[in-house]
Amino acid sequence: MKPELKYSINLKIIYTVLLLLIPSSSVLSQGTWYINGSLQMVSGKYIYDESTSSYTLYGGIRYQTPRWYASADFSAFAQSSELVSRSGDMFLPGNHSQSGNGMHSGSRGMMGNGSTLSGGLGDIFLRGEYTVLTERNSLPSVSLNGMIKIPVAHTHDVYGTGEFDFGMGIALRKRFGQYATFADVGYIALGSPEDYTYRDPVTYGFGAGRFFHNGQYSVLAYYQGYTRILSGFDPPRQVSLGFNIRTSAALTLSITGSYGFSETSPDVGISGGITVAL
Questions:
Q1: 269 pairs with which residues across the strands?
Q2: Which pTM value belongs to this model?
């Protein structure tokens, strides 16, 4: 049986792709500082019988040049159960302590009532990217990227695993007039929560964007998948759609929603955010 709508946030990916593809005039000749903030809601049953809703407030800072960027992202959260944890850029099933009642293989079992909210600080994410080959003629740009998750989230609420995550990857991007295409592949070393053992996945994605009115408006579609993370369960897979408005050279507003295809991803979700060039 197909699970309900699935969602895993790709707002950071969409921000990064759009800001690299359509840099503001202040970025063209020198580095620029950005601050960003967003509010996200995701909800899903995952491999359980009851739904978990997660609410996250993100804030971050990034320094970006035409060749590279480095960023730090922070978050605060609230969620309705202790069944879900955040690993890498994913929300995953994270409570195995009552697996006899709470998990299923092909059909959902019973666990939890999802009736209360718990919250606190989320983990810190450090990210960076360097463009090895710039885009030219018919050739795409080639960039190397990396990620480190610093585990500061409260593990008692299962929002954090209490373990470091490390990621690395390569991204290709190509602009065709008002259109842009991109693809990426990477590897994530995931720290596992106390009650689960996560496999380290290969992640892959591809997408396309369309810009309007000289980049003032843009629409971006992105598909992302992973190799298997939890033994016996399908890996996370989802498609995202983002709409962005560049109100000025310094300000970008974004809204993103996604649809997922596997039982190890959250259900429907939506995010709204703002990015400001300093």
A1: 42, 258
A2: 0.80
* Mean pLDDT, each 10-residue run in order, the chain (278 residues): 32 50 50 92 78 86 92 87 68 54 33 60 91 92 94 70 89 92 92 76 93 90 89 85 90 88 78 92
Rounded CA gap, 149 and 124, in Å?
A: 6
- Residue 109: its pLDDT value, please? 30
pLDDT at 18: 52
Domain 11-277 has CATH 3.20.20.80: no
Measured distance CA(262)–CA(259) in Å, rounded: 10
Where b means 16+ CB within 10 Å and e means fewer, 64-87 reads beeeebbbbbbbebebbbbbbbbb
DSSP letter for each residue of 127-151: EEEEEEE--BTTBPEEEEEEEEEE-
Euclidean distance between CA atoms 244 and 226, whole angstroms: 26
> CA 16, CA 167: separation in Å to the nearest integer?
16
Strand extents, DSSP E, the chain: 32-44, 52-64, 68-79, 84-87, 90-93, 118-121, 124-133, 141-150, 165-176, 179-189, 202-212, 217-226, 237-246, 251-260, 269-277
- Specify whether the CB–CB gap between 92 and 236 falls below 8 A: yes
Q: Containing H/E element for 11?
A: helix 11-21
Q: Where are the domains of the chain?
A: 11-277
Say which DSSP state 177 is in: T
Three-class SS state of 267: coil
End-to-end CA distance of the chain: 49
Predicted local confidence at residue 191, as pLDDT: 81
Separation of alpha carbons 215 and 211, rounded Å? 5
